[in-house]
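Listing 4. Sequential folding, example run.
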Amino acid sequence: MERVTGFLSLLSQNNNKPWFDVHKSQYREALEVFQNFTAKLIHGIATFDKAVSGLSVRDCTFRIYRDLRFSPDKTPYKAYMGAYVCPGGKKSGFAGYYFHIGAAVNDWSGHHFMSSGLYQANPAVVKSVRDDILYDATPYLNAIALAEGFEIDFVGCLKRVPAGYPSDSPYEHLFRLKDFLLTRSMDDAFVNDKNLLKNVLSGFKKTHTFVDLLNRSVSYANSSQN
């Protein structure tokens, strides 16, 4: 993975089209490394989560080119590479497993992390998850406890419990979530370890129960809308 981190570090310092065009061969080499890793990641996750079986690398990865239409940041390229492995692929709306390699810059994209769960789900899905927790939070608490090394990501959560849910509940912190994610940071030593794939799969396997619970709520919300 050193080829990937090395390229992303250089890109973060030279985020412009002329530099990228000159170094496109270096980008393609880094991309090939990342895509090969992603193929193995999909296969490995499918051994404990059959719902992702049959996905392609393209189903789970993203273009490096940024959408600049509504962004004040006009740098043209993402200084990170990510793979989101979930049932139906990255655009399906289902919960899954996200692997992220980023350059050392001062924002959310600038570090390496693993994350399992739901990100930017539609309101009906968010309500479905909250209702499931309201009905019985125990399965979620147990699933979070199983995910050793991961923590609930509270970034962007509500400051108050939303209407319709008890503010005095011992699970009020779960009701305030808009994204339901368990996240684990990875340092350079972790990412460049020869056992990276094995270690990542071991981590994601601990979050499978959490992802499975979320996808039950996603399926319920989807069926209710049809």
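-- end of first protein; second protein begins --
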Amino acid sequence: MSTPLVNKVTIVTGASRGIGQAIAELQAVNGASVVINYARNKGFAEDIVHCIQQNGGQALAVQADVSNIADLEVLFQATIDHFGHIDILVNSAGIMTTKPIEQVTEQDFDREFAINVKGTYFACQLAAKYLQAGGRIINFSTSVLGQMTPTYSLYAGTKGAVEQLTRQLAKEFAPKHMRPPHNILHVVGQ
């Protein structure tokens, strides 16, 4: 079996379930040591760590609210303390509010932008400091941007921002001998 990520360390934000969990498990299958970031689902995160370890991989669960810069710093430092370096950052933490614009509250707006945009932005900032040469950053976008789906304006706004900041950061990361951040398009819903 090929293990192309052996000796690599990956942080996956929002990895206690959903897309983040699937990515973390795939990274481990491919040989990476994986940090399972979670905000509230400690039990789920620990189950994923246990599963990865049972299959011969290395994993660590770290609680951090990606919308809080101090928490992000704890996440990166815990990774360095445990594994010694960081090679890959996968920004998969995110939330989705689907409401008509008349029903979106200021709290909805602030929370969604804090997690989806601020969390991604400042995780990329820390990646600039901590990722090894040749490191990689993966950010998530959505097919909703091209669909113009009613009630998705807030979510689409956050993902549009993530797409643009990813384009801008690609130019900043190139001189650091890191692979530029790139977006992964994912389909929301079934």
